[in-house]
Specification:
The chain is mainly beta. It folds into four domains: 161 residues, no CATH class; 180 residues, no CATH class; 158 residues, Immunoglobulin-like (Sandwich); 118 residues, no CATH class. It is 10% helix and 33% strand. Strands 3, 4, 32, 33, 34, 35, 43 and 44 form an eight-stranded mixed beta sheet that branches. It has a seven-stranded antiparallel beta sheet with strand order 6-5-17-16-15-14-7, with no helix packed on it. Strands 8-11-12-13-18-31 form a six-stranded antiparallel beta sheet, with helices on one face. Helix 5 packs across helix 8. It is globular.
C-alpha cells in the first residue's frame, strides 16, 4: 500500500488502493508520517548491525491464555457480566457448514437489541448478525468490518491490538477467536435451548508469509443460549494471537461532560495552533471525547494549509516524566495529522486530517474553534480512576519541534469505562460491560522512519537499503514485511526521475540524500522465510509455495537441495525492487495505460532478463511470462507471484538504470483476461485483448530515466540489521540465518542484474 503523507510514498507494498477505498484516514498508528527518531542503540558485529531497542519501544505482548477455559457472557441490563466457568466442551459438533449462513428454526437468539433467526459464521473465528454489508455511519473504521465469508475482517496488515477496538460499533458480532487467514472446517447444530458453533482450523502454513511449514490445531466453540447467554470455550489452540469479545451495537449518543482543562496557550502561534482549553466528555459510557479549543478557527479538513500540522493527546495512569511525544510511555497516544493532497495514477485524494492511535475513531470533527476526536480507552480504565492528560501541537513536520506543549493535568474519569479487559481475571462482579473484548497480540511494530534513523544516526548515511531481522514476533498477520523509503539518490545524493516515483522525505528517514529503501519491520527468525531450507520431504500442489518446486530447484544444486534461503530472496529481492518498480505508465496511441500500480499487472509480459534459478521466470515485481497462441488466447508460462525467487524484467532493469532503452524488447499487456482452460503441462490459458507496448511508450508517459544508463548508480550497500529487545543480545540462530541471507542477497543481486551492478553488506 502507499503511505499517505506529504507525497505519494510507497509502503506496505501492494494494497494502497484497497486501503484508500476503505477509509479517508491513512493506515495504522505506526505508519503515522513525520520525522523519525532513534529508538535504540546500533552497533556493529562483524558484517551485521545490531540494533538494541530502548526499553518500551515495542510495548508489551499479550498472548492468548484461555486454552481449556470457558468464558460466560450473561446479559444484564444494556451490557454483559463476564466470568470464567468450569471448562465445558461439546464433542458432538453437528453438521459441517458448507457456507457461512446459519438459519435457526427452534428459537431466536437475543443480541444487540434484536432477536435473530440467522447469522453468519466466519471462517476466521467470528459470528456476525444481520446485514453483512459494510455499515454506513458517522464513525467510519479503518478495518474491513465484514469479510467475504460473512465473518469479521480487517485489512491485510492490520494489527490485532488496533483491530479489536476498531470493531466497536461496526456490526453486531461475537469474536470467538478472530485471527486472519485461518482455514479449516466449521460445524453447527441447533438444540431446543441453544445453538452450538465449532471451529477446527489451522493457521496458514507452508507459504512465504507463514509462520509454520505444517498445519496447526485450533479448536474452539461458541454456545448461543436461548436466554442470550454466550459461552465461549477453547480446546486445543496453537495460535497465540486473536481477538476475543462481544460486540453489540451501541446506538445511544448521550454525552456527559467530565472536565474542562484551561491551557495557557502560545500567543505567538497561529490561532488554530494556540490551544486555550481541552474539554473531556464521556459518550455512551464507551468513548472518551477530547475537544481542543483554539484561540481562532480550526482549519477545515479540505484546506491545503493543514499539511504537516499535528495535534497529539497522551493519556496515562501515572504522571508522565516528559512531554507528549510519539514514543512516550503513555497508555494511549492519540494523534491527528494534516495531510496534503495525494495523487497516484488515476486516484487522487484532497487534503485531509488523519487520526492515529489504539481505540481512536478515525472521524475528526471541526466546529469553529474546536477540533474533537473520540475513542475507546486502554485496558482497565474505569470510572473513578485518576488519569493524566498531556498534549502537544506541531505546526509542520519541517519545523521538527512542538509549537505548544501542554504539561500533564490530572482528572477523575467518569461517564466512560474501557471495553478492553483481561478475560482470565474477570469475575461476575465486574461490569456489566456494554461492549467487552481482549486483544491477544505480539509486540507492537515500530515506524520505518524510526528504524532507519536509529541506524543512520549511529553509523552514518552510508546505506542504500536496510533489511531487518529479529528474535521476536510483532503484531502482524503475516510473517513477511513490506517496504518504504525516501528514494534517495545513492552515494551521489541526486534524484532518480522517469520511474513514476518521486524522491522526498529524506529528513524523515535521517538521510542527507543517500538512503533509498528498507523493510518497514523486522522479519522473525522463526518465520518460514528465515529458514535456510524447508523441512525434508515437504511436498505440495500450491504453485505459490516452495514445496511445489522442490524437485525442479534441486536439479540445479550439487547437494540435491533447493538453493538456500529461497523465500528470503523472494522477500528481499521483491521489497528492495520497489525502490524502482512498479509505478510507471505507458502512453499508447494517446491512451495512458497503467502497467501496475505498485506491482506489474498480471497481464504484463515481464520475463526475467537474467533468471535466478529457473529457465522461465516472470519478474519478481509481478507480471507474467505469456505465450501468444495467435488465436486470441495466451498461455501463462509463469505467473505474477514471487515464489520461488525470480529475477528482474527488462523494464525493471531499465528503471534501475542498468540497461539502456534500446536493450528493452517490445512487450505487451493483456487486458480483459478470461480463463478458458489449461495446456497439457497444467499452464492456464486465457482469452485476452493484447496491446503492444514499447519502452518509448513508457518514456512518453514518464520522461526518460535520469541518470541514464551511462551515469546511474552501479554499486549498492545493504545494511543487514539484527533488531533485539532491550536488555537482550541476538541469538546464534538469528546471527547465522541473517549472515546466510546476507551472502545469498549479494549473489542474488549480481545474478539477477546480469552482473551490471554489485551489492555489498558492509556496516
Amino acid at each position: 500500500m502507499t503511505r499517505m503523507h506529504r507525497r505519494p510514498q510507497v509502503s506496505r507494498f501492494c494494497f494502497v488502493l484497497a486501503l484508500i477505498a476503505l477509509s479517508a484516514s491513512p493506515g495504522w498508528a505506526q505508519y503515522d508520517g513525520g520525522p523519525g527518531h532513534s529508538i535504540g542503540t546500533a552497533t556493529v558485529r562483524g558484517r551485521l548491525i545490531v540494533l538494541t531497542l530502548n526499553q518500551g519501544a515495542l510495548g508489551q505482548a499479550n498472548l492468548f491464555n484461555l486454552a481449556h477455559h470457558t468464558l460466560r457472557f450473561t446479559p444484564e441490563g444494556a451490557g454483559y457480566r463476564v466470568e470464567n466457568i468450569p471448562f465445558t466442551w461439546d464433542s458432538s459438533f453437528g453438521a459441517e457448514l458448507t457456507d457461512s449462513r446459519v438459519q435457526l428454526s427452534r428459537f431466536a437468539f437475543p443480541f444487540s437489541g434484536q432477536d435473530w433467526k440467522s447469522f453468519s459464521v466466519g471462517m476466521t473465528g467470528s459470528i456476525v448478525f444481520g446485514d453483512t454489508a459494510p455499515p454506513k455511519g458517522e464513525r467510519g473504521r479503518r478495518s474491513v468490518p465484514v469479510g467475504r465469508d460473512g465473518g469479521l475482517a480487517v485489512e491485510r496488515f492490520a494489527e490485532l491490538r488496533e483491530a479489536a477496538p476498531e470493531f466497536v460499533n461496526t456490526v453486531p458480532a461475537i469474536s470467538v477467536f478472530f485471527k486472519p487467514r485461518m482455514t479449516g472446517k466449521r460445524y453447527w447444530k441447533e438444540l431446543d435451548d441453544r445453538a452450538v458453533v465449532t471451529w477446527d482450523l489451522t493457521e496458514p502454513y507452508g507459504g512465504i508469509q507463514d509462520w509454520t511449514w505444517t498445519p496447526t490445531v485450533n479448536r474452539f466453540q461458541a454456545v448461543l443460549h436461548k436466554d442470550g447467554i454466550i459461552d465461549l470455550s477453547y480446546d486445543d489452540v496453537a495460535a497465540r494471537d486473536a481477538v476475543v469479545g462481544v460486540y453489540p451495537l451501541i446506538a445511544g449518543g448521550s454525552e456527559k461532560e467530565i472536565t474542562a482543562i484551561s491551557v495557557p496557550g502560545n500567543p505567538s502561534a497561529a490561532p488554530n495552533l494556540d490551544i486555550r482549553q481541552i474539554r473531556l466528555s464521556g459518550v455512551d459510557n464507551l468513548y472518551l471525547r477530547v475537544a481542543l479549543e483554539a484561540r481562532g478557527p480550526m482549519l477545515a479538513g479540505t484546506d491545503p494549509a493543514i499539511a504537516g500540522i499535528t495535534y497529539r493527546i497522551c493519556l496515562s495512569r501515572t504522571a508522565p516524566q516528559g512531554p507528549c511525544t510519539e514514543d512516550t510511555h503513555a497508555d494511549a497516544v492519540w494523534t491527528v495529522r494534516g495531510f496534503a493532497a495525494f495523487h497516484y495514477g488515476d486516484f487522487s485524494m484532497g487534503p485531509h486530517y488523519g487520526s492515529f492511535g489504539a481505540g481512536l475513531v478515525p472521524k475528526v470533527r471541526i466546529d469553529g474553534n474546536t477540533l474533537s476526536i473520540e475513542g475507546t480507552l486502554p485496558e482497565g480504565y474505569k470510572a473513578g480512576d485518576r488519569i493524566y492528560l498531556s498534549a502537544a501541537v506541531q505546526a509542520s513536520d519541517s519545523q521538527g519541534t512542538d509549537s505548544l506543549r501542554i504539561p500533564s493535568r490530572a482528572f477523575t474519569l467518569s461517564g466512560v469505562t474501557s471495553p478492553e479487559v483481561h478475560f482470565s481475571s474477570l469475575t461476575r462482579k465486574d461490569g456489566p460491560f456494554p461492549v467487552v473484548f481482549e486483544a491477544f497480540h505480539y509486540l507492537r511494530p515500530t515506524r520505518p522512519q524510526d528504524l532507519s534513523c536509529s541506524v543512520i544516526r549511529a553509523l552514518g548515511d552510508k546505506f542504500d537499503m536496510l533489511a531487518y531481522y529479529s528474535d521476536f514476533r510483532i503484531d502482524n498477520p503475516e510473517a513477511g514485511t513490506s517496504s518504504d523509503g525516501p528514494l534517495g539518490g545513492g552515494p551521489e545524493g541526486g534524484k532518480v526521475t522517469g520511474i513514476g516515483a518521486p524522491q522526498g522525505d529524506l529528513a524523515d528517514f535521517c538521510s542527507k540524500g543517500r538512503f533509498q529503501w528498507e523493510f518497514i519491520q523486522p522479519v522473525y527468525v522463526g518465520a518460514n522465510q528465515m529458514q535456510e531450507y524447508p523441512p525434508a520431504g515437504l511436498t505440495g500442489t500450491d504453485t505459490h509455495n516452495i514445496a511445489f518446486y522442490m524437485h525442479q530447484l534441486a536439479e540445479r544444486t550439487f547437494n540435491g537441495k533447493i538453493p538456500p534461503y529461497d523465500y528470503a530472496m523472494s522477500q528481499i529481492g521483491h521489497e528492495m525492487g520497489h525502490r524502482w518498480s512498479a509505478f510507471v505508465t505507458a502512453k499508447v496511441n494517446g491512451e495512458t495505460i497503467q502497467l501496475g500500480p505498485v506491482h506489474w499487472a498480471m497481464g504484463l509480459q515481464a520475463p526475467a532478463a537474467f533468471p535466478y534459478q529457473r529457465p522461465t521466470e516472470a519478474s519478481i515485481m509481478g507480471g507474467g511470462v505469456w505465450q501468444d497462441n495467435f488465436d486470441g488466447t495466451f498461455t501463462q508460462l509463469d505467473d505474477n507471484y514471487y515464489v520461488p525467487a525470480t529475477g528482474y524484467s527488462y523494464l525493471d532493469l531499465y528503471l534501475m538504470g542498468l540497461i539502456a532503452p534500446s536493450e528493452v524488447p517490445d512487450f505487451f499487456i493483456l487486458r480483459n483476461l478470461k480463463l478458458v482452460g489449461h495446456d497439457a503441462n497444467g499452464h492456464p490459458i486465457f482469452m485476452a485483448d493484447r496491446t503492444k507496448v514499447t519502452i518509448q511508450d513508457v518514456i512518453a508517459a514518464e520522461g526518460p530515466r535520469e541518470p541514464d544508463v551511462d551515469h546511474s548508480q552501479r554499486h549498492f550497500n545493504t545494511g543487514i540489521v539484527l533488531v533485539v529487545e532491550h536488555g537482550r543480545t541476538p541469538s546464534q540462530e538469528l546471527i547465522d540465518r541473517a549472515t546466510g541471507i546476507s551472502q545469498r542477497w549479494i549473489d542474488f543481486w549480481t545474478t539477477t542484474t546480469g552482473h551490471r551492478a554489485t551489492m555489498t553488506a558492509e556496516p
